[in-house]
Amino acid sequence: MNLNLGTAAFFTALAEFVLAAGMLALWAKGRARYLVVWGVGFLVFGVGALLLILRDRIPDFFSILLGNFLTTLSSVLFYVGICLFFDRRRAWLPWMAGVLAVEVALLACFSYVTYDTSARVYVYGAAQSVIALMTLQALCTMGRGHGGNSNPEVVVVALLALLVHGARLVGTPFFPVPQDFLASGNFQTLLAFGLKLTHIGYALAFGNMHAAALHADLRAALAHIEAKAHQKVEILGYIGHDLRAPLATIGGYASLLLADAHDTQRKHLLTIQRSVKYQLHLIDELLEYAKAELQPLTVHPVTTDLPRLLDDISDYAVALCAQRNNRFRYRPSERMPREIGLDGKRMQQVLLNLLSNAAKFTRDGVVTLSVTARPEGRVCVLSFAVSDTGIGIDMSRNIDIFGAFQQMHPASGSTGLGLFIAQRIVSAMGGTLSVASVAGQGATFSFTLSVPVDASDADWPVVAQRETAPGEPSPAPAMPRHAMPEDRALDELASLALQGRVTDIEHWIERHADEAAYVPFLALLVDLLERLDLRGIHALVNRRSGS
Q: Is the pLDDT of residue 430 over 70?
């Protein structure tokens, strides 16, 4: 088999130009200096290989001196690029420059003083071997760089380059070189192909190094962003905590002043209380968001009475809907499991959040809570949906409504955290919160959960549907006027019931618990509160009989 050295050099030059173009294309995207140096290294080697092929058409200065100089210079440029990549001092560069100078001088000597092709081969092989040794030593001492190990693949390729050039030094005495180097036999041709494969290996190794550097930079940027986001969340938590204390103090003083206030003052103080409560609600949402971001959101499934939980939530929903004259509908499945494994508090938090939003953005309309239960072996598939006939959402705006601080309707004055928190809870429970809406026609938020259940569907109790019309009072007996507190206190209680502020109603009861004359009234009030019958409380207060 007779291989042609000129053909090998030609294809080597083409391969080098392709590799140079690839490196420069990567540089155009990232502007990394080492990519330019490596690209120029491949380019000059390709030019040197072409000059060697054109020996019969150009002077020896270009084909021999410049051609060999450029191919050796490419190895120096590879070393410089490696140092730039690892951000290390180029300690061997002066020595490599000296090697290049000696190589050019000896090549000139054996071209113009004594024409000796074999001697030129030895000079070229020795220069390349010395530079390869320097590169290997630099790679071994660089250790770690760019967040990872010193890339063993480039060490292997540098070692292969050393072996190829060393083989040229060792094998040339056994395979003599003719005066016309391009007429060399198979040995020099195989070495040329081996050098081409070595440079392809360099290109692959350099590409992997660049990819590893980009990955490390991306990880560092991501870690920086996460740290900044963590700091912002902590600041939100601190702000929320520090704002809550003075607001609670203001609310407390307003409650104290209500005891001795006349009608005009009482009106202003109640306004202050409402504003404080509203701001505290917003702060609580901020704190909930900060807590969810700083630590993983957890759910704790326990045995939960599902029908009772949904009845309680419906009672809350009635009070929420009454504030804007909305009709509330509760549409459960005909049968529903009594006890399921579910985090009831988290479920209540999600549904009340959705119901509150539905009631807030609907006036004189309908808010519906639908729940369906479907048995699947030892698991019950629960589907929840909260729909309304309110202003709806313009879905064409392509806004992530479940993102933190997203406000579809800025005029609402909310923090934009409610849906974010609800979505986090539903995800922690194994579901996905979704929305379907048309602007001006209402919205429907829904999710599906699979929960364990012990009883078979044949044992599931029948659950009644429920519908409450606006202004429809719950039945409540009339109390003698002397058995009820003064009008000022009753007006406050009526306002609390209308706004669905259960905790404040509990505080109201505590403030009047020492009055013996009010015991029957307070007992009835406690009974209504335990059933979360806020409309019943409102009706009880308004049905004051004469003394």
A: yes
